[in-house]
Amino acid sequence: MFATRPFRAVTAAGIAARSLGRPAAAFPGRVATDADLMIAVDRQQTRLALPLNASDTSMTVVDPSSIGADNLLTIDAEIVRTTGAPTGNVVPISRGFDGTTPVVHLASAVVSGFVDAWHHNALTAEIEAIEQALGPNLSRIPASQWLISTSYDFPAQTPGGSLVVGANSITLTPVPAGINGSNTGHSLYISGGTGTAEPALIIGGSAVSGAATGTVIVQCANTHSGAWTIRSASSGIQEAISAISGVGGAVSVPAGQWDVYALTTIPWKVSVVGADRHATIIRNQSTTTGVFRLDAPFVGGDFTRSMGLMNLTIVSSAVGRTTVDVAAPAVYLYGTGNMTIVADVTIQNHNIGVHFAGSIYSVLERFEIAIFGTAGIFHEYGDANWIRTGTIGNGRSTSTPVAGSAGISCQNFGGLYVDAVDITKAYYGVKFQPDAGHACNYGFFTDVLADSSLNHGWYFDISAGGAINTIQCIDCWASFCGITFDGAGWTAARGVFINGTVDNPCGISFIGGRARLSGGNGIDINGSAQTKIIGMEINANSQQSANAFSGISTDGTARHVLISGNQIGNFQVDVSAQKQAFGVLVGGGASSDFISVQGNDLTGNSVAPLGVLGTFAPGANVIITGNLGVDGVPSTQAAAATLALSSQNHYKLTGTTPIGTITGGWRGRTIILVFTDAAPGGLVAGGNIAKAVAASQNQRVTCEFDGTLWYSQ
């Protein structure tokens, strides 16, 4: 061993204090490294091979084998720091470390690695910095934003005693995490012993989550005695939600099948997320209560208050049931707002799949709703909500859909956006039925299909006293509407049925899409105003009874109707399905006005391309022109004192009878008469003929009606 020398120079007062004390910590500004903490080596000692001047930044040693980067080495009373690994016997160093003084050192001076004050002080600084960041009891670490529901599904407790109908105080020992006496609205499940099992609502108590003991006061509907137990009513989901309520975060529900017995409330800033909607299955063991209620007040512009429900399936008591077992909505969006999202969910066996009840800026997307009762989706009221990319259907149900139910049922909204939704085997596909004092205003539907509905595919109904305004449907379909649930027969259901009065509904538009193979009319317009049917394919309707129904039918009260650019006929189907009577059947009436039927292909209908029922008022504004199958296709009729017009605008008249009256006109209607007899009677003044015309054989006479008289040219 080498002879040792003092670590510090000794004075009369003892060892000189040369350390600069505790250094500044690297953390939390950065992570401390070897260069901050230094590396110590056991039994590290050698000698200088050459003298070391006070300004030298490298030293030559006898044996460099134990020396590495970031070592602290003592030579006499000076500490040097190695700044890198040795090269041969030469070691790079920095001088006068930690307050020591660079001096000259002679050859053969001992070079030793000690545990210096720096090693301790640097560690002290970093440890204290870490503890300051963590805080006492980890108080500066925010609660985890992801909690696992199963961690809160506490073992059932057996408090003992008896419970009566009404309020009961129960002592929990310990108080499970996520349970507080202040958590009113949180249910626990009581079962076993003597008495009917039930979820019991917490209405008070002293319990504090995680305490050694505490009480909850619960409201019981039944008596309980014997060895009854109390446990989570939600497989730990509600308890996990309670643990982060007010802070925000997400509750993860693992893959598996989880039973729930009571409604679980999801507050603002909290989301419940399953592993995958094919893996996380929520089984509702109640027949009267829904599963999730997303509930938070709307605060305009504050999108941090959103909630979510994602990646899971909700069924009734067991997977695979084919009946509606729960008389409640599976999911409520109640008073929610600020981008609440329900996504990637499957819902089955509930009376209503999703119930919008006052929600604003909420989104339902990538969903499947099957085997429902009153509605797949019920939009009771709310504004600016989105429903997109999903399926709604009763195809797997063993029961006929409930009369009056709908895939999407709308009672009230001020802005609703629906996109890419397929609805099959509902009673109605999409139903608008606002009640008194409410309205369905501003709905925008794109690529929505109502297929195989027992009744109308699209039903607009104001009989409950409300109003419908501005519903735009782009590339939407109605198909096989009116086919019976077993597919064996048909009813007279319409693809689209607008059932209103004068000027209500107002502003319904169907642009593109199809209305095909329905039992009754493809589109039926009763009442209403500002209705537009543009660019649709309306094909092979009237499947209940041949020649009984038409592609489009309007009644005598419709106003401001535009029918343009449609293909309407019996095409692209086998002969047995070619039953559609008229392409367009227009109803004339005292209040029917501003009717425009232009530029349609009306060829291929069984009875006629166009029909007009009733008589328009003398001042009615009607334009029917430019339709294939009508214009340019002459109708041969016998001349008569009163000539009754069909839907055609071009007539070849046989016989010699003079014509004194022409019926079937409307203001602006223009017809062409060609008298084919060698001695035709022509037109005679009187009746509603303004001026006599002495026609010759094959003479072409053009007549225009002003609402009172026919004028010829």
Write the layout of secondary structure elements.
Layout: E1 10-11, E2 14-15, H1 34-37, E3 45-47, E4 58-60, E5 72-75, E6 78-82, E7 90-94, E8 110-112, H2 117-134, E9 146-148, E10 166-172, E11 187-191, E12 198-204, E13 214-220, E14 229-232, H3 237-244, E15 249-253, E16 256-260, E17 264-266, E18 270-274, E19 280-284, E20 292-295, E21 308-315, E22 326-334, E23 340-348, E24 350-360, E25 362-370, E26 375-393, E27 406-410, E28 413-424, E29 428-432, E30 439-451, E31 458-461, E32 467-474, E33 477-479, E34 496-511, E35 514-516, E36 523-534, E37 537-539, E38 552-554, E39 559-564, E40 567-569, E41 582-587, E42 593-598, E43 608-613, E44 622-625, E45 635-638, E46 642-644, E47 650-654, E48 661-663, E49 670-675, E50 699-705, E51 710-712
Parallel strand pairs: 9-15, 15-18, 16-19, 17-20, 18-21, 19-21, 20-22, 21-23, 22-24, 23-25, 24-26, 25-26, 26-27, 26-28, 27-29, 28-30, 29-31, 30-32, 30-33, 31-34, 32-34, 33-35, 34-36, 35-37, 36-38, 36-39, 37-40, 38-41, 39-42, 41-43, 42-44, 45-47, 46-48, 47-49
Antiparallel strand pairs: 1-2, 3-8, 4-7, 5-6, 5-8, 6-7, 10-13, 11-12, 11-14, 12-13, 49-50, 50-51
